[in-house]
Amino acid sequence: MIGTMAVLVTACGKKERPKADLAASQVTTIGVNSYLWRASLDALSFMPLLQTDSNGGVIVTDWYANPKNPGERVKVTVSIVDQDLRADALRVAASRQVSQGGQWVDAPVQAATVQKLEDIILTKARDLRRAAIAG
After folding, report:
1. Of 32, 53, 66, 120, which shows the fewest CB atoms inside 10 Å?
2. Domain that holds residue 33
3. CATH code at 124?
4. What percent of the chain has pLDDT over 70?
């Protein structure tokens, strides 16, 4: 039994595994994961940008009011906190205000809104990576 196990373990070490031809999940020519960075910029492209820092991985939008709902505006901050393409490498925060009597008043943001934006960014980032794999 022990002799058989030794043969099996030895055999496992001698086989060379084929190397996968995959695009790296860690592309960081700009300081943070490039896929997440590009996907974030793409997802927020309809909003005016207030600040972008590719080395620090921060994108801050200015207030944006949807023309269909001018009594409400939102502001988004995206932080990329890791060099790997992973869900926990992305943080999205949103602020929302509503117009009341000509003044902008803070209002709660639905958690589903932030989650949806994170999902959009992550999906775009994965699509960019898949496109890089396809070449």
Report:
1. 66
2. 2-134
3. 3.30.530
4. 79
